[in-house]
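Hello, quick one for you while I still have it in my head. No rush at all, and the record is pasted right below.
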Amino acid sequence: MTLVGRTRERGIETLSLDSPATRNALSAPLVAELADALTECAKDTDVRAIVLTHTGNTFCAGADLRNPPPPDALVSLLRQIVEVPKPVVARVTGHVRAGGLGLLAACDIAAASGQATFAFTEVRIGVAPAVISLPLLPRTDPRALARYYLTGERFDAPEAARIGLLTTAGEDVDESLAPILDGLRRSAPEALAETKRLLTARVLETFDRDAADLTALSARLFASAQAREGMTAFLERRDPAWLV
């Protein structure tokens, strides 16, 4: 079963998260398949840029609680998106939660339609947005992150653009992306790669400095009693025991 669809048009490779039954949650197989697709795109000289999108009404619901990837596998995937020597553009027309926001932050450019909604829901199941902070903290407004990390509130696409999570938000995401993709097609491949290297240097410094600590934190929290209660409550569609 293929979990990542692939199409190509005029040098733009589109990778589609294609597990709508699980709301494109980051399972171990999906993470591995997306990593393989990115590796192939990086080696293909005919690929000018990569669009990361989705099927169904959810871009990504975060980690698959029934079959989650190891924290280090998610770190590796996020770093791969940052490091791949082609621009990676997120195209979002649905909901994004938890780990899915890490995918957005790792992309070089991110666009969403008015139907998109966003939330850092980790605290509501007893964990923290640890690993995804590697690309998020260097690129997103710190005051806004403090609010949304700590409360798990939902916010819309214009707010996501305001705080730096998105590059652009509009009712028609393809209309927003048209001039961006045209610009990428007009740009020299080596120049794109070197320009991306300039733009991602600070993000990669964060990976080098903090990845081991945040991976350990993520593993510890997911193994905690509160996380077990939070995830069980989520799967059983009930309130967790700590709700007051």
